[in-house]
Automatic annotation (TrEMBL):
<keyword id="KW-0410">Iron transport</keyword>
<keyword id="KW-0067">ATP-binding</keyword>
<keyword id="KW-0813">Transport</keyword>
<dbReference type="GO" id="GO:0016887">
    <property type="term" value="F:ATP hydrolysis activity"/>
</dbReference>
<dbReference type="InterPro" id="IPR017871">
    <property type="entry name" value="ABC_transporter-like_CS"/>
</dbReference>
<dbReference type="InterPro" id="IPR003439">
    <property type="entry name" value="ABC_transporter-like_ATP-bd"/>
</dbReference>
<dbReference type="InterPro" id="IPR027417">
    <property type="entry name" value="P-loop_NTPase"/>
</dbReference>
<keyword id="KW-1003">Cell membrane</keyword>
<keyword id="KW-0408">Iron</keyword>
<dbReference type="InterPro" id="IPR003593">
    <property type="entry name" value="AAA+_ATPase"/>
</dbReference>
<dbReference type="GO" id="GO:0015408">
    <property type="term" value="F:ABC-type ferric iron transporter activity"/>
</dbReference>
<keyword id="KW-0547">Nucleotide-binding</keyword>
<feature type="domain" description="ABC transporter">
    <location>
        <begin position="4"/>
        <end position="234"/>
    </location>
</feature>
<protein>
    <recommendedName>
        <fullName>ABC-type quaternary amine transporter</fullName>
        <ecNumber>7.6.2.9</ecNumber>
    </recommendedName>
</protein>
<dbReference type="GO" id="GO:0005524">
    <property type="term" value="F:ATP binding"/>
</dbReference>
<keyword id="KW-0472">Membrane</keyword>
<dbReference type="GO" id="GO:0015418">
    <property type="term" value="F:ABC-type quaternary ammonium compound transporting activity"/>
</dbReference>
Length: 335
């Protein structure tokens, strides 16, 4: 196949199995997110792909060629880290021109290309500035321009946005996706942030304790997490089991008795009678809306979204939004 293939890769450090039989693919021009909690093996996987860590078993291929033993600098990949790692003593333009200068491109041509790339990342006119005078988000854009300057056949991104605050992170994730797709860049991103993965990537791999537990299009992971832990990790807030799960399934008209995962907006105070009813408890004010704890007979206390906090003790109707609900088949996947 064309693009990256990781086949059955395992890495152990002393007693720790950092990666256990990991396989994945990134087709040319696609963006894959490797998603998982701290310590699940993301960085180790990135290091194996970059050639900074030899796997104990398994192989790395690019465009069908085995590159497992090819040294890092011969792989034609670029790496972009969390903190950008710009050279402070060079101007922004010289930072971006650096990879091409190293490849022997003339100063004039490398600078011209750097100007083009700064334009692509929304920083036209910044070439003469010092990186020290830029905001965190601007520095990450320069780091991206520099990573793209080498025209890598694969761009590896290690938590590229996690050093930024939330607002900026969300905006930059959208821009980053647009830049990567516009430049046709094949990319692999590691992150613990499902929002970042969903915004940026076409496909995602969920890692847990060094093993792949789910691999698919981001839309499929968003809709159908493989188990309860995956659901929680992918942004579902509540997982109901037993009788409460059956009640919600009944409301949605679906059979089965597996767990039901609810996103934050899955339950809403209804303007009408609602599909469920309960008694309002305490309300909490969030950034965008109010969350009311509603005691529903048979289900217990559930967080329900509302536009306006109902008075405690009031009877409220609740709508169940099917698009915000995942029907799980298993509790936990054996790993
Ligand atoms: N050089 C090493 N020596 C010993 N153990 C290591 C080494 N590198 C990683 N590990 C262990 O391997 C496991 C996976 O680590 P890794 O850094 O790949 O996880 P991660 O998902 O990137 O975590 P984080 O998100 O916290 O960076 C962890 O249990 C870690 O402690």
């Amino acid at each position: 196949m064309s693009g990256l293939e990781v086949r059955d890769v395992s890495v152990a450090f002393d007693q720790t199995r950092a990666l256990d039989d990991v396989s994945l693919e990134v087709g040319t021009g696609r963006i894959l997110a490797v998603l998982g909690p701290s310590g699940c093996g993301k960085s180790t996987l990135l290091r194996v792909i970059a050639g900074l860590q030899q796997p104990d078993r398994g192989r790395v291929l690019f465009d069908g060629q085995d590159i497992t033993r090819v040294p890092t600098h011969r792989r034609g990949f670029a790496l972009m880290f969390q903190d950008g790692q710009l050279f402070d003593h060079l101007s922004v333009g010289a930072n971006v021109a650096y990879p091409q200068r190293r490849q022997g491109v003339s100063r004039r041509d490398a600078n011209a290309r750097a100007d083009e790339l700064l334009d692509v990342v929304g920083l036209a006119g910044f070439a003469r500035r010092s990186p020290r005078t830029l905001s965190g988000g601007q520095q990450q854009r320069v780091a991206l321009a520099r990573a793209l300057a080498a025209e890598p056949r694969l761009l590896l991104l290690d938590e590229p946005l996690s050093a930024l605050d939330r607002d900026l992170r969300e905006r930059l994730a959208v821009d980053l996706r647009q830049i990567l797709t516009a430049t046709g860049t094949t990319a692999l991103l590691v992150t613990h942030d499902h929002g970042e993965a969903f915004t940026l990537a076409d496909d995602a791999v969920l890692l847990r304790a060094g093993r792949v537990v789910q691999h698919g299009a981001v839309a499929d992971l968003w809709r159908d997490p493989v188990d309860e832990d995956a659901a929680r990790f992918l942004g579902y807030r509540t997982v109901l089991t037993g009788e409460p799960a059956i009640v919600v399934r009944r409301v949605l008209g679906v059979a089965g008795d597996g767990p039901v995962a609810l996103r934050r907006g899955a339950l809403r105070v209804s303007s009408g009678a609602g599909q469920l009813t309960g008694i309002a408890g305490r309300s909490a004010y969030g950034a965008d809306e109010v969350t009311v704890e509603v005691d529903v007979p048979g289900l217990g206390g559930l967080p329900v979204a509302a536009d306006v906090a109902p008075p405690p003790g009031a009877s409220v109707g609740i709508d169940v939004l099917p698009a915000q609900v995942a029907l799980l088949t298993v509790h936990r996947t054996a790993t």
